[in-house]
Amino acid sequence: MIPPMGRMDGKVALVTGAASGLGKATALRLAEEGARVLCTDVDTEGGEAVAKEIGASAHFQRHDVTSEAQWEAALHEVTERFGGLHALVNNAGIVIVRSIEDTSLEEWRRQMAVNLDGAFLGCKHGLRAMREGGGSIVNLSSVAGLVGQPPFVAYSASKGGVRLLTKSVAAHCLQLALPVRCNSIHPGGIDTPMTRSLGEKIPGAGPTTLAVLDKMDVSGPLGRPIDVANLVLFLASDESQLINGAEIAIDGGLVAL
Ligand SMILES: NC(=O)c1ccc[n+]([C@@H]2O[C@H](COP(=O)([O-])OP(=O)(O)OC[C@H]3O[C@@H](n4cnc5c(N)ncnc54)[C@H](O)[C@@H]3O)[C@@H](O)[C@H]2O)c1
User: Fold this and answer.
1) Which distant-in-sequence residues (6+ apart) come within 8 Å of 153 by Cβ?
2) Is 145 touching ligand 1 by the criterion CB < 6 Å?
3) Where do the structural domains in the chain lie, given as residue ranges?
4) 167-200: per-residue pLDDT in tens?
5) Can 129 be counted among the known catalytic residues?
6) Is the beta carbon of 61 within 6 A of some atom in ligand 1?
7) How far apart are CA 105 and CA 103, in angstroms?
8) Which class would CATH give 12-251?
9) Ligand 1 mutation pick, 44, 61, 94, 115, max ligand atoms within 8 A of CB
10) Is ligand 1 within 6 A of the CB of residue 151?
């Protein structure tokens, strides 16, 4: 019997922040559908474990997304090792739980460096790697990139930036007739270490952060990482060929309210 075709057969993907949560689920899902995957992260132990779980079709490289030199090294590694790049998932991220009144300039800059500089550098260097052969960039924004989130002001601003970075990259590719698509996805609360750590970080937050957290409705079940991974898979694959510059909420309808 002929084995069924994988939805990512013959494709190469790079997933940042692949050691944990949504990045891990995405790397596993893409590999399951036939992709060869470069898993990158600053967490070497976690990243190596994910690559090991996938097997021969994956490799881990330590890669801080705030470093342009490390982006160049990661792109070099993926093209040398796997012969090209077809899908880039800009997933690595952090969340700093601070209101506008409690956020220091240093915290603001750190938040922007990882979430927005990281996605910018990924789009810039990923596009260069894919501009001839074609490909798909998927940027992890958030519902916090669609609506204001008072307890995480810098996070929300960084994710809003990712949303319009995405559309600008998509429009650039359209105008220059480059065969690269770029879309953003906007998860609501998903059950990952990041979401679970929010509770731990809250006690250290300043008084106005605690006050706005008090008013936040955090009821409702958390989504599953596999649901996000399945959306990334669709956008990374050729099934979504006509989807470019889109923002897709994956939040059970939260921002539709
Ligand atoms: N979990 C959610 O509910 C949710 C909702 C909306 C958006 N998101 C976004 O999804 C992405 C993944 O979130 P998650 O919940 O899986 O978080 P997570 O904390 O479980 O995983 C994030 C990963 O990014 C890595 N990372 C952090 N800084 C890095 C850096 N400078 N360079 C490279 N890697 C770095 C971490 O080591 C970690 O492995 C993030 O961009 C996050 O903002 C998550």
Assistant:
1) 98, 99, 100, 103
2) no
3) 12-251
4) 999 999 999 999 999 999 999 999 999 998 887 7
5) no
6) no
7) 7
8) alpha beta
9) 94
10) no
